[in-house]
Amino acid sequence: MSFPSILLIAFIAIVSIQIFYYFAFLLNFGLKKPNTPSHESPPLSVIICAKNEAENLRVNLPLILNQEYPNFEVVLVNDSSSDETLEVMEAFDKSHKKIKLVDVKSNETFWGNKKYALTLAIKASKNDYLIFTDADCQPNSNQWLKHISSHFSNEKSIVLGYGAYAKKHLSFLNKLIRYETVMTALQYFSYANVGLPYMGVGRNMAYRKDLFFNNNGYSTHINLRSGDDDLFINEVAHKSNTAICFTTPSFTISEPKTKFSDWILQKRRHISTSKHYKLKHKLLLGLFFFSQLLFWVLAPLALLFSPYWPWILVTVILRFAIQLTSFALASKKLGEMNLVFLSPLLELFLISTQLSIFIVNLISKPKHWK
Hints:
The chain has twelve helices and ten strands. With 370 residues, it is of the alpha/beta class. It has a domain of 195 residues: Spore Coat Polysaccharide Biosynthesis Protein SpsA, Chain A. Helix 2 links the parallel strand 1 and strand 2. The protein is elongated.
């Protein structure tokens, strides 16, 4: 068999894998309508773990305290901060009955480990339903708690929400961050939608306290500096106990990184946990990533050197049409439609960045959550 024939077969195989993923997972979610929320309002404990977040707490905490929800507390965790985080928390604590304060001192064994601080907060919480977010997150509405909690039921003990990033004009890095965030959400929503939940984001997710303790919390990965959100969900989530919430009032909004180096460090921490996922999730996610990578490698080679280039061109157009449709449907749900036409370029940059991070993480590991 000639090299052009092999190249054609390989390229069509890669695109076929891509199309399978788009139809089986991504388009499936893109066409899904939000579930009708229930009217029950169980008592909630909102948990916010903060390390050197004094300014963010001053701005964002009032938006959480002013949620229109009948019964909730806010558990604030000061994780050995060196700024005025503790003082800000204490000031809010004096003026709001809803607040419970947990001050975590430096601990040689668990220094720099967010999971230790979160475990103390979960133990201190008084309610069985726990909502997690970060100090740099703002609820997208005063109905945030209502929308997230409405997906709890006798069967559903985990709710996965969406944590968006604020838009910054004329910033390619901002567009790249938002594109990566949408793609990550598109994947974990899509997988959960077909009964294969594998992760959530700590900026916006919820689960029951008894789920945490019945599964021994973070014990299996307590020494890893990341993974309080995705690794825990990867361990305990399954088809029957996981719900997704993607209504606009349920979003949280965070300030994105403004330096490429800071974002790379953040992504290094996140990517370092993926090797600890269940095998089936690693295989599915890895195959999708490498099919994307090989598409961008093989497409120009096939178009330039294959005598079958008209067939290659038709395949490329088909792949992009399906990719853009999938991304557009998800982007509309998640409020990011202005990224649609840039998505092929952003995809190329993101795949290149992720590949670089994989290689760097093989050499050295990120050590602290912050």
